[in-house]
Amino acid sequence: MVQDSTANRNGEIMETNKEQKVLEEKKRIEETISQIEHRIAVFSGKGGVGKSTVAVNLAYMLQQESKSVGILDADITGPNVLKMLGINDEAIVINERIIPFEKYDAKIISIASMIKAGQPVIWRGPMRSKMIQQFLADVEWGKLDYLVADLPPGTGDEILTITQQMKPEYAVIVTTPQEVSIIDAERAVNMAKKMEVPFIGIVENMSGFACPHCGKVLNIFGEGGGKTLADNYGVPFLGSIPIDLHTRIYGDHGVPVVLKETESEISDVFRSIASKIEFQSQETMADIV
Ligand SMILES: Nc1ncnc2c1ncn2[C@@H]1O[C@H](COP(=O)(O)OP(=O)(O)OP(=O)(O)O)[C@@H](O)[C@H]1O
Ligand SMILES: [Mg+2]
Question: Has residue 24 been placed in a domain?
Fold first, then answer.
C-alpha cells in the first residue's frame, strides 16, 4: 500500500513537472511572438512548387527594404533553407538558447544545422511539432519586423503547429499553374481559412519560361491557375514568378536571386509581392491599434 501511494505521488510530481515545462515553453513562445511585428507562413499543398525559393527571396526582399527579418525553416524532414543560403555551420547553443545564423543581414534557423548532411529525420508528427515549438521558444530571435516560416508540402502537423503557435497574420500559398498543384493549393487555402490566418495571398510560381533564343514564352506548367484560384476564393493574387534559370542557379549556390539581380524581372515580381504583403500587414496593425 505504502509503495502504491509513493508511486502515485511520484507520478503526480512528474505530471506536475511536465505541465510546468509546457507552461514555461508556452510563455517563452509568447515572449518570442511579442517581439516580432509581422509573421508570414509560406505553404502550398504540393511539394517542389517553390515554397523555399519564395520564402527566402521574399524574406530578403523585405530585408532589402530595411526590415529586420528572420527565416524559420519549418520543413523538418526536407530542410532546404540553409542550402539556399550557403550555410554549412552547426547550430550554437548558449545557456540553453539557440543562436540563429546570420546571413546577408537576416537571421535563420533550420534543423539542417543539427543533423548530419544526407541523414534522414525519421520523426513522427509530434516530434516534428516539438522541434518547431523549440524554434519559437528557444531561438534568440530578438526584435524582428518579419519572421517568414518555410513549411513542408501538405497540410500536416508542421502547418498546424506554425498556425497555432507562431500565429501568422499572412499565409502565402505557392502554386504552379498546373492543375495538380492548384488542387493541392486549394486545400492549403482552406487550411489557412480554417486556422483563421487573417490574410491569405496566392503566388503562382514557375509561370511561363521565356526562351532565351527567340524570347517566346512557353507555358510549361500551363497558365493562369493561380489567379483563378485567388479569384475563386476572393483572396489577393500576389504575383506570377516565371521559370528563371538564375533563380535556380543562385539558389543552388546559396545566394537569393533578389540580392544578386536587383534590377531584373524576378526582383520586380518579388518587390511587388513584398509590397502587397507589407501593405496588408500595415492594415492589420491599423485595425489592431
Ligand atoms: N521560378 C523558378 N525558376 C526556376 N527554378 C525555380 C523556380 N522556383 C523554384 N525553382 C527551383 O525548383 C526547385 C524546387 O524549389 P523549392 O525547393 O523552392 O520548392 P519547395 O516547394 O520548397 O519544395 P519542397 O516541397 O521539397 O519543400 C529548386 O531547385 C529551385 O531552385
Ligand atoms: Mg521547401
Answer: no
Is the Cβ atom of 153 under 6 angstroms away from ligand 1? yes
**How many angstroms is it from 170 CA to the middle of ligand 2?**
18
pLDDT band of residue 153 (cuts 50, 70, 90) is very high
How many folded domains does the chain comprise? 1
Residue 289 has pLDDT above 70, yes or no: no
Q: Is the minimum distance from the CB of 162 to ligand 1 under 6 angstroms?
A: no
Q: What single string gives the DSSP state of each residue in 209-234?
A: EE-TTT-PEE-TT-SSHHHHHHHHHT
- 138: CATH: 3.40.50.300
**Domain housing 127:** 35-288
Distance, in Å, from the CA atom of 229 to the CA atom of 61, rounded to the nearest integer, reads 25
- Identity of the residue numbered 70: G
* pLDDT, mean of residues 81-93: 94
Beta strands in the chain (DSSP E): 36-43, 69-73, 92-94, 97-99, 101-103, 106-109, 144-150, 170-175, 199-205, 209-210, 217-218, 237-241
Residue 20 belongs to some domain of the structure: no
Q: Is there a domain that residue 149 lies in? A: yes
List pLDDT tens digits, range 2-20.
Answer: 667 777 777 777 778 888 9
**Residue 146 · residue 177 · CB < 8 Å:** no
Q: What is the pTM of this model?
A: 0.93
Whether the pLDDT of residue 166 is over 90: the answer is yes
Cα(33)–Cα(260) distance, rounded to whole angstroms? Answer: 31
pLDDT value of position 230: 97
Query: Is residue 2 assigned to a domain?
Result: no
Going from the Cα of 37 to the center of ligand 2, the distance in angstroms, rounded, reads 24
Task: Indicate if the pLDDT at residue 92 is higher than 70.
Answer: yes
